[in-house]
Amino acid sequence: MAVIGKSARRIEGLEKITGAARYTEDLRLPGMLHARLLLSPHPRARVAAVGAEAARAVPGVAAVVTAAELARLGAGARGLLAGAITRYAGEPVAVVLAATEQAAADGLEALRGASRFEALPAVMTIDEAMRPDAPLVRESTEVEEGDAQAHATVAVQTQRAERPSNIANRVTFSRGNAGEALAQARVVVRRTYATSRIHQGYLEPHATVATTDPGTGELTIYTATQGTFYVRNEVASALGLSQQQVRVVPMTVGGGFGGKILLFQPLAGALTRLVGRPVRLVLTRADDFAATEPGPASRIELELGAEASGALLTLRARIIFDAGCEPGAPLSIASLMLGGYYKFPNLEIEAVEVLTNKPKTGAYRAPGVPQATFAIESAMSELAGLLGEDPIAYRLRFAAAPGDPQPHGRPWPKMGLRQVLEALDRHPLRRRPKGPDEGIGVAIGGWPGGLESASACVRANTDGTFQVVMGAVDITGTATTMALIAAEVLGVPPERVRVITADTHQAPYAGMSGGSKITYTVGSAVRLAAEDARRQILAIAASHLEARTEDLEIVEGTVRVKGSPTVTLPVAEIAAMSMRFGAKYPPVFGQGNTVITRQSPGFAGHLVRVRVDRETGAVHLLEYAIAQDVGFAINPAAVQGQMLGGVAQGIGWGLFERMAYDESGSLLTATLSDYALPRAPHVPRVDTIMVEVPSDDGPFGAKGVGEPPVIPAAAAIANAVADAVGARVTDLPITPERVLAALGAAAD
Amino acid sequence: MAVIGKSARRIEGLEKITGAARYTEDLRLPGMLHARLLLSPHPRARVAAVGAEAARAVPGVAAVVTAAELARLGAGARGLLAGAITRYAGEPVAVVLAATEQAAADGLEALRGASRFEALPAVMTIDEAMRPDAPLVRESTEVEEGDAQAHATVAVQTQRAERPSNIANRVTFSRGNAGEALAQARVVVRRTYATSRIHQGYLEPHATVATTDPGTGELTIYTATQGTFYVRNEVASALGLSQQQVRVVPMTVGGGFGGKILLFQPLAGALTRLVGRPVRLVLTRADDFAATEPGPASRIELELGAEASGALLTLRARIIFDAGCEPGAPLSIASLMLGGYYKFPNLEIEAVEVLTNKPKTGAYRAPGVPQATFAIESAMSELAGLLGEDPIAYRLRFAAAPGDPQPHGRPWPKMGLRQVLEALDRHPLRRRPKGPDEGIGVAIGGWPGGLESASACVRANTDGTFQVVMGAVDITGTATTMALIAAEVLGVPPERVRVITADTHQAPYAGMSGGSKITYTVGSAVRLAAEDARRQILAIAASHLEARTEDLEIVEGTVRVKGSPTVTLPVAEIAAMSMRFGAKYPPVFGQGNTVITRQSPGFAGHLVRVRVDRETGAVHLLEYAIAQDVGFAINPAAVQGQMLGGVAQGIGWGLFERMAYDESGSLLTATLSDYALPRAPHVPRVDTIMVEVPSDDGPFGAKGVGEPPVIPAAAAIANAVADAVGARVTDLPITPERVLAALGAAAD
User: How far apart are CA A708 and CA A369, in angstroms?
Assistant: First the structure.
């Protein structure tokens, strides 16, 4: 391989670190109006009055829009703002549109002052919500396939409630008889784990600029989204437009992590259609915390049973997701991973989602799986400890292998779980002597791998450079990966390949950048398209040089006859011959249409050494290692970046992050000072070990690497804390208070 | 055929006639500067002083740029403004950049007042230029293939001058011995014809907005051009950039006719790179007349000889083009048509281009051919008259047929010249009695047909609509034609097909919209791409319906099993199955890469009845008919529009248009009141007769239709005038003065 497999700098890196990258909020269109949202101050309230007149009196305010105005655009637009009753604190109720940002802020203040809400009884916790007399969060039983669910491409039928209920959906999986097996088990771990509602923590708040063409009625949406086609389809559907009338232009995404898929684009589109001027809707940080879709909190009741020999007997678990005000939590994928990592002869898993008066939850890196993994991997280490077994050796003994059934009965495909555990086993961190109050924790985590059809084009320019045209948004450096793939296939230096993420009017189809699937799926399409272009180049060269294509090769942008180094033809000349007046050859324009129907699961294993301060309860991370099966690292630097970023975010899950609400249902953590993201001093040096069990389907053996590294962190840290001081914390984040409480419990 | 062959409305028609269409000049970018050009007041002058300081003192003026500043961007940028010596009145010497249009105008006034030019001896006519002691217009002998030449895809080697000379290039063609044959001829026509310099007369002046990305240095050019890739390549080359760093965004073109290919885009690009802010360069009407590239004037010395029997013996001709200050006049194509329409046993043609101190000439609808045709078709009618033959019957007797050699020896391909003449022969206008001083004129004209490779994509949306993505700019309704082609192939109503002309970053390759080749070449690519998409749709349907693809058809957007009308599957569902999470099929995304290497020449024949006012010399057009071989009319309304527009522009050539210069070399006709375009009362009712001799290569038999209809008009009118009053006018336009002079000469 001339190009791939070597670390390459991210193409857009310089632009981003110098601040030159243009984000949606930098866009200015002539006549543009700035939007500010009036949010519901209560988790459940009757909207008694919207003080639109007061806001309209503010100089510069052009319009105040409520659900009633939006209804003029059709039924689909009605739900974009709250109606008579709000469902969460933070739900948008009205929009102020003004000529300047300041006027919009002033207008919003006037609007807020003149509006009245009557608080109604609300349900804020899953326990409140499940009470038979609890107020209903919603009246419908409709279930849309959630973004989060779709990420993992798992096809499982959910059982929706028969009549409106705060318990919206349920999935169950079983094998053998988990209850009987538990009764027979000699060693049992029985715990209830809890994880917090977690915000995706991207740097750039949600941002959309929408404009409508007065002549054609066409809508253009500039937006920081992970999925342009998805946004296009949803906007078209909400506003009753043809997909041809909606153009979604991808903008630089300032952090996504699943949180930048679809949110305010239909509202922005509706607003510009209503007022006939461009509309810029950029959330403030506080509004972003209050009104977007974080990952769901969970409660997982888990029982794990083994024979005295250590043989794993059974798993029984109940997963409850706090979905917020709309269903769509990742029940299936959480269940499949919870029960899928190990060979359980008996298992029984029930997962339900419960509605509460909080914002709907959405996708966050490996939706549902950090929660499930925190439970199962805490329990596995605890079980190994009870059995006196080494936690890695014990896992290796029962780790699922290709062909073993997953909870839904389908077999695991080719995967590298065993190889990841073996890599962890070999790691020197394992054998390093532990100081006082130090412990080592291990955990693994897996992601089944997303699937989606994709197309891509690779086009030559007549100066010998190339354009990759695709529809996939680059959120993690995938454009660089695509350039490397195309360069490798074409035999040109990677700097000659430019990658364009086209808008939805012009792009070949690609699914959203999420679920660890862009390299796997779009990368395959790019590889095919580049191979197509290469064939075309060689065919022209063969005709021109009077050689056979089999005898030709492309080296550094020049076609040459193997063995005759003087007979050469630059790719630039070939391209020029194919694109000009009176050309004899068709343009060099390669295309790839792909569908991969087999998943390539990705596994990561974490190893962490911690020291626990018994006085304060503080957990200090001393040393970290992650081994991950990446299939094949096309751009090792980018893969390593995913591993490091995953670990950092996983540390956030483990030690710091939670969205906290006060008793009245108001968000307490609505700023970046209150919402505790991990910072540089919290992340130790991380040793990254890439295990390469090549995928049979991904390009050059690559598989998805984005999701897996975040998954095991919280469990690994919890296991390390337990190893260090014998205190098991079962609630995330592992705060000093909880460590002290667990120490107290352990001492009792 | 369900869709094509029936007249369809132009997709963008409503937008244009309601004024909603957005043109380049409507664009406003934040921080944008408005540019105004300081033009040379003399045809040849030394630039003694540029009063930049005076202009910079005007409030709002941000910069004054001369060739010296541009030189900082590299050698390629230096030539974008005049250096020490100007070469024509109207040559841009400096640019004022200001925050508003008014400030730019004020700045220009100050600049003009403070700048000094010293007039130098200039050559304004071809006679002056050819004098041995004439000042040289340029020092170089380099020849670039001109836009105009390239239009017709004729590959002829020109002989460039060995040392700098005002006679820049020469081509010659010969067969047999023209001189000897002339000596033997019994009937000879010997004339010198002259045609004027003609402006393309588009409504929208040249307009470009250029902007540079401070982060990446990437240049974006929004411009009304007929050829985005051509502009991209030339801008990149002028500014020393990779083609990947230049994005050309096609804007609505307010009339092109060959005049909107490449002109001020490199300058606008250089300016924005220099000042780091967006630059808007929109010419005033006067500047557009003074500084753009019109069609060249010509002088054609022609001798035609026949035997007493009427048998055509020989043609001898010398074509002189007044190229303006740079070579690039359409020598070859003019020669090939001049000597190609008829079977001459002997011919000798020499064509030269002569440089003068006027703006460089460029392409104008059928470059060079109206000039050549005016000569040969005037002479053919005169010869027929001398022989007492009917002008159509005589032409039919000697009309070139497929297989006959053209002047360069290569055979004519399949074409419909004979069928066009036969259609004219049958037309009732021929047999209508003529009133006093009325005459009927006939002329034919042909265009070899352009060739260029092309790609296109046809992509399904999941609501059952489709996107055609191409790189070709729509200047004549071709987007509508592409929608019809795709709809026909796909089996969907045409309103479900949206055609996108993508920018050069994203588009499949297409050549410039000129030379009558977009339907022929890009249309073929669209047809292939639609066929590809159709195959993909049927393959999915076959798999889903468990049928064989041969048994399936698509009717009105639904796939059905032939003979089983109840077994159906909407195309929307098929598309949705191919583009979603976990899809089983690759996206429906069709691609077409084509090259056609055989030309399909197009011929038109005009028939016109005129009345000549012997007192005033005025020529009144009473009745007009045009027959044209269009191959196959995919959208008859669009084809008819081309025919009508061609006739109208041909009437301009024949009766009105010329760019006139005063003795000092200043343009006299720099406004639309002075430059006499034909107006509605000047154009009579035109009967359009479409002859369909299908092309073996174009989509559904279509061939190029844009160029041919303008070609014969001037000759047909001149022949009608001669038929009416016996006066032959050999200089265009046929003004009343010239008619009176010819009447006087005829009376002598």
Answer: 9
How are beta strands A497-501 and A466-470 bridged, if at all? Answer: parallel
| Burial of B663 per CB tally in 10 Å (0-12, 13-18, 19+) | exposed
- Among residues of chain A, what percentage have pLDDT more than 90? 91
Beta-carbon separation of A452 and B243 below 8 A:
no
Contact A257, A62 (CB under 8 A): no
Beta bridge partners of A195: A298
Going from the C-alpha of B410 to that of each of B155, B336, B340, B548, the distances in angstroms are 11, 10, 10, 47
Q: How far lies A262's CA from each of A67, A198, A206, A328, in Å?
A: 19, 18, 10, 14
Q: Give A443-490 pLDDT, tens digit per residue.
A: 999 999 999 999 999 999 999 999 999 999 999 999 999 999 999 999
Report the amino acid identity of residue A58. Answer: V
Q: With CB atoms and an 8 Å threshold, state whether A505 touches B467.
A: yes
CB contact under 8 A, A216 and B591: no
Chain B nearest CA to A207, separation (Å): 19
B581 and B672 both lie in a single domain? no
Same domain, B632 and B562: no
* Percent of all residues in chain A with a pLDDT value above 70, rounded to a whole number: 97
Q: How far apart are the first and last CA of chain B?
A: 61
Q: Does residue A7 form part of some domain?
A: no
- Comparing CB atoms, the residue among A463, A511, A581 nearest residue B243 is A463
Range from A117-126, B10-19, B137-146, B148-157 carrying the lowest mean pLDDT? B148-157
Among A509, A521, A526, A594, pick the best mutation site for testing chain B contact (most B Cβ within 10 A).
A509
Do residue B620 and residue B511 come from a single domain? no
Pairwise CB contact (< 8 Å): B582 & A452: yes
Residue A402: helix, strand or coil by DSSP? coil
pLDDT number for residue B746: 81
- Do B616 and B697 share a domain, yes or no? yes
Please tell me the distance from the alpha carbon of residue A725 to that of residue A615, in angstroms, as a whole number.
12
* Residues B573 and B666 both lie in one domain: no
Give the pLDDT mean for B371-397: 98
User: In this predicted complex, what is the ipTM?
Assistant: 0.93
Task: Report strand pairing: A602-612 vs A438-447.
Answer: antiparallel
Q: Which long-range contacts (CB under 8 A, 24 or more apart) does B305-311 make?
A: B305/B181, B305/B182, B305/B184, B305/B185, B305/B186, B305/B187, B305/B188, B306/B185, B306/B186, B306/B187, B306/B188, B306/B383, B306/B387, B307/B185, B307/B186, B307/B187, B308/B186, B308/B187, B310/B187, B310/B387, B310/B389, B310/B394, B310/B397
In a domain, B54, yes or no: yes
Report the mean per-residue pLDDT for chain A: 95
Q: Which residues in B443-476 are b (16+ Cβ under 10 Å) and which e?
A: bbbbbbbbbbbbbbbbbbbbbbbbbbbbbbbbbb
Cβ distance of A511 and B581 shorter than 8 Å: yes
Distance CA A291, CA A119 (A): 18
Mean pLDDT of chain B: 95
Domain co-membership, B590 together with B561: yes
Longest dimension (CA), chain B: 89
Residue B76 has a pLDDT of 86
Q: Read out DSSP for B684-695?
A: --EEEEEE----
Q: How confident is the model at residue A150 (pLDDT cuts 50, 70, 90)?
A: low
CB-based contact A243 B463, cutoff 8 Å: yes
Contacts of B153 in chain A (CB under 8 A): 581-582
CB–CB of B111/B64 below 8 Å? yes
Cα R_g (chain A), whole angstroms: 27
Which of B151, B469, B587 is closest, CB to CB, to A506? B469
Q: How far apart are CA B226 and CA B224, in angstroms?
A: 7
Q: Which domain holds residue B260?
A: 14-120+201-291
Contact A347, A312 (CB under 8 A): no
